[in-house]
Amino acid sequence: MAKPYPPMPFERYADDAIVHGRTEREAQEVRAAVAARWKACGLELHPEKTKVVYGKDDDRRRTYANEKFDFLGYTFGPRRSKNRKGKFFIHFSPAVSDKAVKAIRAEIRSWDLHLGSDKLIEDLCRRFNPKIRGWLPY
């Protein structure tokens, strides 16, 4: 990515990647180049996961088929935010994904907390704090 497309930010984790483009044309060109490179390595892009997403916010108000995406447990998309002066605006930013929230809820339910009323709070903290600390970045 650094050689053929130096100005385009690129994030990768394992076999997932995000490429930031300024225009749809640029994004489609990079998508085709990545697909060709992967094909040369005997790989192919996942047809449902590979998409061009429009980074909708207050400055980009068009509508597009894909305006959000999931990456590493976060859903990136247009969200309402508040600036320092208290004024609301639309901002393209991450939030915990629905899939991650469901997994967290299922994990908490599996703890059967209602059956642990005889336990000391210190014991419960030792048991659950490591897991809860992992969720805090969300």
The termini sit apart by: 29 Å
Gross geometry? extended
Radius of gyration: 20 Å
Major β-sheet, in short? 3 strands, antiparallel
The strand order across the widest sheet is 3-4-5
Order of helices and strands: EEHEEEHH
Number of strands: 5
Q: What is the helical fraction, as a range of percent?
A: 25-40%
User: What's the multimeric state?
Assistant: single chain
Strand content: 15-25%
Topology record:
Blueprint (H helix, E strand, L loop, with lengths): L9 E4 L2 E4 L4 H17 L28 E3 L2 E9 L5 E9 L1 H13 L10 H15 L3
Antiparallel strand pairs: 1-2, 3-4, 4-5
Describe the fold and architecture.
- The protein has 138 residues and is α+β, with helices and mostly antiparallel strands.
- Helix content is 33%, strand content 21%.
- It is built from three helices and five strands, in the order ββαβββαα.
- The protein has helices at residues 24-40, 98-110, 121-135, and strands at 10-13, 16-19, 69-71, 74-82, 88-96.
- The strands form two sheets. The protein has a three-stranded antiparallel β-sheet. A two-stranded antiparallel sheet has the order 1-2.
- The chain is extended.
- It starts with 9 loop residues before the first strand and ends with a helix.
- The model has no long low-confidence stretch (mean pLDDT 90).
